[in-house]
Specification:
By secondary structure, the chain is an alpha/beta fold. Helices cover 36% and strands 17% of the residues. It has an eight-stranded mixed β-sheet with strand order 1-2-4-3-5-6-7-8, sandwiched between helices. The model is unreliable at 1-5 and 306-323 (pLDDT under 50).
Length: 323
């Protein structure tokens, strides 16, 4: 077998992330972000896809969408503060902090005609930021996520919140990040070595894993928690976005953001196009990119009067997606 046909190794992960880095400074800290594609596409000026990741991922998670879509859209994918290649502050951050920083990035880059593409914590962060300037939001694409107080906390998450031991395991031993490599995919036994290495690369020390633990710790358990109140406010305002085209792509074997989370979005947005992927887990884009990427391509083309889906997309989707 030729060298170029060998499976990727851990040392090859940077080849899977062929993007230029940019930094946005906000109140003395720097957010890293990708900014790919035309800043002003000829037939759709200012249109932007804003990719917002969750925990314990970073902008690497969006590579399967950024690469094919950057020729048609401006693709902006930030790393939350403390995550990916962004600065790692000393303190633990909360949901409201991440919303503040994303909102500042949106304003600072003057992002218009935004299509929010979000997953995991990215749903609450992205929707929270866009609800501050809803006139900038044009469309919504969500993978397994939530934007409301949690109806439950899975035992695998609760174990990571045990006082003292939880922080040692998550921030000290990297347990949460390593477990995610297996627990977030259902259709695959394991990720390729280069992909797994990329997810772990920014989270290689106690300091660099502080935000991973911070997200776990910030999951609220009662209405007295400030983050609960932030989530409740986002949920209360979701119906105000019901006039936006929305695509909901759900891995139905996700043990964290289960199908009842999808149902809550469908109640808020009756017009949303929902696609349930039966044998797919939490990281939909890792588990089933061959299904998820054409769905997003189709949705963008179908809701954009200046474009139409590619022939490959139409073939991949099949007639059932166009009924």
């Amino acid at each position: 077998m030729g060298r170029d046909l060998q499976p990727p190794t851990a040392r090859d992960w940077r080849a899977l992330y062929p993007f230029d880095s940019h930094w946005f400074e906000n109140h003395g800290v720097r957010l890293h972000y990708l900014d790919e594609g035309p800043a002003r596409a000829l037939d759709r000026p200012g249109q932007t896809l804003l990719f917002v990741h969750g925990n314990p991922t970073w902008s690497f998670h969006w590579r399967a969408l950024v690469e094919p879509l950057r020729s048609r859209y401006r693709c902006v994918a930030p790393d939350h503060l403390g995550c990916g290649l962004s600065d790692k502050p000393r303190g633990l951050l909360r949901l409201s902090d991440h919303i503040d920083h994303l909102a500042a990035l949106i304003e600072g880059l003057d992002l218009e005609r935004v299509t929010l593409v979000a997953q995991d914590w990215g749903g609450a962060i992205g929707l929270g930021a866009m609800l501050r300037r809803p006139e900038r939001l044009e469309r919504i694409v969500l993978f397994n996520t939530a934007a409301f107080p949690p109806p439950y906390i899975p035992w695998r998450i609760r174990a990571c919140r045990i006082p003292g031991l939880g922080r040692l395991a998550v921030q000290g031993g990297g347990l949460f990040s390593r477990a995610a490599l297996r627990m977030t995919v259902a259709g695959k036994r394991r990720l390729e070595p280069a992909v797994a290495a990329a997810y772990l690369a920014p989270y290689n020390s106690w300091v660099n894993r502080r935000a991973v633990y911070g997200f776990v710790k910030d999951i609220p358990r009662s209405p007295h928690d400030p983050t609960w109140q932030v989530l409740a406010d986002v949920e209360r305002r979701l119906p105000a976005l019901a006039d936006r085209p929305a695509l909901l792509v759900w891995g139905m074997r996700d043990w964290c953001f289960r199908p009842d989370c999808l149902a809550r979005f469908e109640r808020a947005w009756p017009q949303a196009e929902a696609h349930r992927l039966a044998d797919v887990g939490h990281w939909v884009l890792e588990d089933a990119p061959e299904e998820a990427v054409p769905l997003v391509d189709w949705f963008l083309a179908a809701t954009d009067s200046h474009s139409s889906p590619s022939a490959a997309t139409m073939n991949a989707l099949g007639a059932e997606h166009h009924a």
